[in-house]
Amino acid sequence: MRKVVGVAALLCAAVLAGCSGGGEGGQAAAGDDAITVGFSQVGAESEWRTANTRSVREALAAPEFNLRFSDAQQKQENQIKALRSFIAQGVDVIAFSPVVETGWDNVLREAKTAGIPVVLTDRAVNVADDSLYATLIGSDFVEEGRRAARWVIEDSQGKQGPIRIVELQGTVGSAPANDRMRGFKEVIDGDSRFQIVRSQSGDFTRARGKEVMEAFLKAEGDNIDVLFAHNDDMAIGAIQAIEEAGRKPGTDIRIVSIDGVRGAFEAMKAGKLNATVECNPLLGPQLADLIREVHAGREVPKRVMVEEGVFTQDQAEAELPNRKY
Ligand code: AHR
User: What does the sequence similarity comment in the record state about its family (predicted)?
Assistant: First the structure.
């Protein structure tokens, strides 16, 4: 590890909500030559995020790594504070999953000036100078949006328009919300039967997904044919709202969402969700490899993609026991 600035431990305790080391709960201690990684996570907003955190913690475990983990609780200001604290602590590598895309230039420049490489995981940033980070490992969110739209088109074969779609967006300004919206629209706009009649953020959570769907149902009544949710958790919340409104999710309203978490497979098995586009949260092992490479000063690809698929109701029962998240 680099020379530690004296206030580091204090900063960790006082400034960072949820800052914790990797060696708690009887785990092995970090070795003397361990790579110290400061990791700032988005929060705990979804089943996807819980699986992602578990995967990162497992892969960045002692004795090889000394993990400083911080939970931003879905707030960019918390992440910026965490990154500044990691810089002050002189960690070897910073890794983070940015809550939103913009607003990172200054803090990333500070990391660069301090000579600390930054690895982005899951979500992208929009910065003027892309030398401010070493690499990004994560899914192709635009393609996920396209896949959801292709499923809707296939599912609507033989149906006449207008087919009215409501969209539950992810966190405003986040890469997955921006990209999934763009990919979905790009494909759906090619078929004149479809209209996106309502589109609003449910912040990637079940509770908000339910609330926003209630508002959609109130405004549109029975005139909703399809729900596209940017993640499974919002779809699961919306399913509850649809049932409470006396309609049949999966039948009266066809539903496609993104992630492929266990809850989505259970909802598909119950006939309430029609399809889920996979977004793999198990990024820990690949992230650890990239951190090793970057720490050793070796060249890494600027973008590392994750392979993913689409699952439908008829596959749910057979696939459920194989799900790892
Ligand atoms: O960035 C990935 C997205 O963030 C997942 O699709 C969503 O569930 C999570 O909150």
Answer: Belongs to the bacterial solute-binding protein 2 family.
Give 3-state DSSP helix, strand, coil % of the chain, rounded to 5.
40, 20, 40
Q: What is the pTM of this model?
A: 0.92
Q: Which atom of ligand 1 is nearest to the CA of 281?
A: 2
Interval between CA 319 and ligand 1 midpoint (Å): 21
Give tens-digit pLDDT for 8-65: 444 444 444 445 654 444 567 888 899 999 999 999 999 999 999 999 999 999 999 9
Atom of ligand 1 nearest to the CA of 174: 1
The CB of 123 under 6 Å from ligand 1? The reply is yes
Residue 176 Cβ contacting ligand 1 at under 6 Å: yes
Distance 297 CA to ligand 1 centre (A): 30
Using CA atoms, how far residue 211 sits from 87, 237, 240, in Å, is 39, 8, 10
3-state secondary structure 35-72: EEEEEEECCCCCHHHHHHHHHHHHHCCCCCEEEEEEEC
Ligand 1 pocket: which of 147, 204, 236 to mutate (most atoms <8 Å of CB)? 204
Query: What is the Cα–Cα distance from 214 to 44, expressed in whole angstroms?
Result: 23
Element (H, E) at 137: strand 135-138
**What are the DSSP calls for 3-41, one per residue?**
PPPTTHHHHHHHH-TT-EES--TTPPPPPTTPEEEEEEE
Asked if residue 167 has its Cβ within 6 Å of ligand 1, the reply is no
pLDDT in tens, 60-93: 999 999 999 999 999 999 999 999 999 999 999 9
Dist. CA 166–CA 86, nearest whole Å: 41
In this prediction, residue 20 carries a pLDDT of 60
Q: For the sheet containing 226-229, what is the strand order?
A: 194-201, 163-169, 226-229, 254-259, 275-278, 310-312
Ligand 1 atom closest to Cα of residue 230: 6
